Each structure stands twice: as structure tokens, then as C-alpha cells.
């Protein structure tokens, strides 16, 4: 691997991954292709060396063709990623996550480029709250939201391109990431920044939905491991065995936040749940642990959460300008 195309490299996980590669393999040249939608921020790449930034869309066939001809590997993060938005504006999710992936796959076949596709545990749907089931690589696809359906379609396409055209591809399906540079529309950064602004933390529905949390740096190390040693045609589930319900995450935040909030009182407001809300995700990362020897490093969730709170408290300039717009959009949804 000499030259890497990173789609969506100005977003949350993509930018963390670019930093990770730059730190661990400084000899690799990276091209970041990002459309800088509301979720992308060029400042996320400040100070990173060996990166050429290209402002453009994965749905631009000509641009994708010319970039693909210059690289040997692609890691495909670019997507519309937020469930609440997918419920009100599903079309762009299919244009980006399905058609964009199609265009990348065709170009990757043309230039015989190694392809790693970033996906989500949401393709497997959810389980009941009292279930102990964990998703594995052989779980059935059962997406329940428009976002998850678009990601499921893209996973199926990657497998079809491996079988039909011999594309050298791998897929990883990861659980909920948290950490620095995550957009403040997402649960943890929204809760932190609400508290820092003196707004109530918003808890959807009964607050009992369960997510399986992983620090973004662990997601990046897993992707790196798959690029080095993953077997072509294989899928790897990536998670850190950290299932917690949302109310419990909020309880931890209520303990961590006071030192950053001065006199402001931290309050919590229950708001209406997402339409069709998924109850519980949990995944079994055995395969990547056993076959590739990958291990999550951030196994203390409370510590990772404290560091994340500290990051948002120290980077108000990164998020405060767009906080009012994000909260206005949520207010329109009653959330
Ligand atoms: P994000 O929304 O923070 O970033 C997405 C990036 O893609 C942004 O920089 C955006 O500008 C860019 N983008 C959007 N449309 C584009 C287009 N047409 N062309 C080029 N760039 C475009 O998302 P994220 O949370 O970093 O997620 C990255 C990937 O990881 C997604 O594929 C998502 O499905 C997957 N994933 C996310 C999580 C999570 O917890 N955040 C978990 C598992 C998988
Ligand atoms: O599981 C992986 C997925 O995790 C990724 O594929 C998605 O891209 C990513 O956005 C994330 O999806 P979720 O829908 O699980 O994440 P979100 O942060 O939007 O919500 C997490 C939980 O918190 C969910 O049960 C809804 C709830 N929630 C969310 C917000 C924004 C709240 O209670 N309050 C909130 O303010």
C-alpha cells in the first residue's frame, strides 16, 4: 500500500483514520475525497501531513475515475450517516450511500484497486432489550431504518462486486463510535454540548435503548489491521463489548460534566423517540480478534467518555458556531 484514497476523510471517523495513518505509516500518501456536506469539516484535517484534499463528491464519475487511477487502495467512509436525518430526507442517503458506492466500485474494478468498505452494525436490525444475542458475521441482514437500508444495500453491492468482477474487497461493520471530531448532532456530543451551553440533555423515549460503544481510535486500528492482514472477500465485525443504555450514558455524563459547567445545573429532558427506533445493538468481535489479533485499547468507557467531554470543552470554537442550527433542526422534530 503506497497511495490511499480516503472517501469522507473530513468527517468524524474518516478524519480520525487519516490522523491514525499519518501517525502510524507516514510513508503512505493519502488523497481525501470529501464533498464537505454539513457533516464534513476541512478543519478536522488541520496539521495532518501527507494528505492531498480534493473537494468533490463520490457521485462524480469523472472525478472518481481520475482519482482511482492514481491510488492502489481505497477506504470508503463517505456517507450520509445520521438516522434522524434519514427519516425526513431519505433520498440523499440512497444517492450517496448506494449510487456513490456504485461509482466507486466501478472505478475500483477498472483500476484493480484494493477496496475497504466501512459499514455499520445497523444492517442487522435490532434485538429486544432483554435479549443476550450478539450479531456475528453470519447474522441475517434486517435493516429497520432508511439509513441502515442504504448501508445494507451498499454491503450487498460490495460482495456482488467481489464475486462478479473479482474486486479485492473487505467490509467492516462497526458499532457506535464516540470520541473527538464527532458531529454534535449525534447522541454523546449533543448531550455534552447541550450541557456546556446550559441546555437540557435530550433523552429519546424511555432512554432504555442500548448501544454498543467503541472509541473511534479502536475503530481506526481495526480498519488498519484489516487493510494489512484481512482476507479478501471477508467481512469483520468491529466492537469493544461495551453495551450500555442511553440513560446510563447520561448518568455518567452527569457525574463527569459538573467540573466543566460552572454554576450551570445539568438537566435532562425526555423527548419523543425516533420513528421506528432500534432498541438494542450488540456485536461479537470474535472473528477480528481471533483471526487478525486485533484488540480494542480503550476498554474503560467511563475514561473514554471523560476524555471526550474534555475534548468538547476545550474545542468550543470547533462546534459553537453551528450549535444553534443543529438545535433548531431538532426542535422542528420535537426532539
Ligand atoms: P460523518 O457524517 O461524520 O462523515 C461523513 C463524511 O462523508 C463527511 O465528511 C461528509 O462531508 C462526507 N460525504 C457525504 N457525502 C459525500 C459525498 N457524496 N461525496 C464525498 N463525501 C461525502 O460520518 P461518520 O460517523 O464519520 O461515518 C463514516 C462512515 O462510517 C459511514 O459510512 C458510516 O455509515 C460508518 N459508520 C459510522 C459509525 C458511527 O458510529 N459514527 C459506526 C459504524 C459505521
Ligand atoms: O451503530 C452504528 C451507528 O451508530 C452508525 O452506523 C451511525 O452512523 C451512527 O450515527 C450511530 O447511529 P445511532 O442512531 O445509534 O446514533 P445516535 O447518536 O443518533 O443515537 C444513539 C442513541 O441515542 C439512539 O438510541 C438515539 C439516542 N439519542 C440520540 C440523540 C441525538 C438520544 O437519546 N438523544 C439524542 O439527543
TrEMBL record:
InterPro entries: dTDP_Gluc_deHydtase, NAD(P)-bd_dom, NAD(P)-bd_dom_sf. This is dTDP-glucose 4,6-dehydratase. It comes from the Bacteria. SUPFAM superfamilies: NAD(P)-binding Rossmann-fold domains. Its EC number is 4.2.1.46. It comes from Alloscardovia venturai. One of its GO terms (molecular function) is dTDP-glucose 4,6-dehydratase activity. The lineage of its organism: Bacteria, Bacillati, Actinomycetota, Actinomycetes, Bifidobacteriales. Coiled coil: none annotated.
Amino acid at each position: 500500500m503506497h497511495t490511499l484514497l480516503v472517501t469522507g476523510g473530513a468527517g468524524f471517523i474518516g478524519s480520525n483514520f487519516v490522523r491514525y495513518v499519518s501517525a502510524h505509516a507516514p510513508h503512505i500518501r493519502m488523497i481525501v475525497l470529501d464533498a464537505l456536506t454539513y457533516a464534513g469539516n476541512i478543519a478536522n484535517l488541520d496539521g495532518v501531513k501527507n494528505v492531498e484534499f480534493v473537494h468533490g463528491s463520490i457521485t462524480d464519475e469523472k472525478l472518481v475515475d481520475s482519482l482511482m487511477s492514481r491510488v492502489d487502495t481505497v477506504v470508503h467512509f463517505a456517507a450520509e450517516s445520521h438516522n434522524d436525518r434519514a427519516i425526513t430526507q431519505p433520498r440523499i442517503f440512497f444517492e450517496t450511500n448506494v449510487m456513490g458506492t456504485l461509482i466507486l466500485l466501478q472505478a475500483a474494478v477498472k483500476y484493480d484497486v484494493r477496496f475497504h468498505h466501512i459499514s455499520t452494525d445497523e444492517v442487522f436490525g435490532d434485538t429486544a432489550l432483554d435479549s443476550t444475542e450478539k450479531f456475528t458475521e453470519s447474522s441475517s441482514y434486517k435493516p429497520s431504518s432508511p439509513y441502515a437500508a442504504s448501508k445494507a444495500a451498499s454491503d450487498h453491492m460490495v460482495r456482488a462486486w467481489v464475486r462478479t468482477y473479482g474486486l479485492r474487497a473487505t467490509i467492516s461493520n462497526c458499532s457506535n463510535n464516540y470520541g473527538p471530531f464527532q458531529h454534535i448532532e449525534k447522541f454523546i456530543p449533543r448531550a455534552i454540548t447541550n450541557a456546556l451551553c446550559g441546555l437540557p440533555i435530550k433523552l429519546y423515549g424511555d432512554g432504555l435503548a442500548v448501544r454498543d460503544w467503541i472509541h473511534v481510535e479502536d475503530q481506526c486500528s481495526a480498519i488498519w489491521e484489516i487493510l494489512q492482514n484481512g482476507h479478501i472477500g471477508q467481512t469483520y465485525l468491529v466492537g469493544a463489548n461495551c453495551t450500555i443504555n442511553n440513560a446510563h450514558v447520561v448518568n455518567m455524563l452527569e457525574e463527569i460534566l459538573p467540573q466543566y459547567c460552572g454554576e450551570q445545573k445539568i438537566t435532562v429532558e425526555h423527548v419523543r423517540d425516533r420513528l421506528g427506533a432500534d432498541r438494542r445493538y450488540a456485536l461479537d468481535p470474535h472473528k477480528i480478534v481471533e483471526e487478525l489479533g486485533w484488540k480494542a485499547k480503550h476498554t474503560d468507557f467511563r475514561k473514554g467518555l471523560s476524555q471526550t467531554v474534555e475534548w468538547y470543552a476545550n474545542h468550543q470554537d470547533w462546534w459553537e458556531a453551528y450549535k444553534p442550527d443543529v438545535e433548531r433542526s431538532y426542535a422542528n422534530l420535537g426532539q
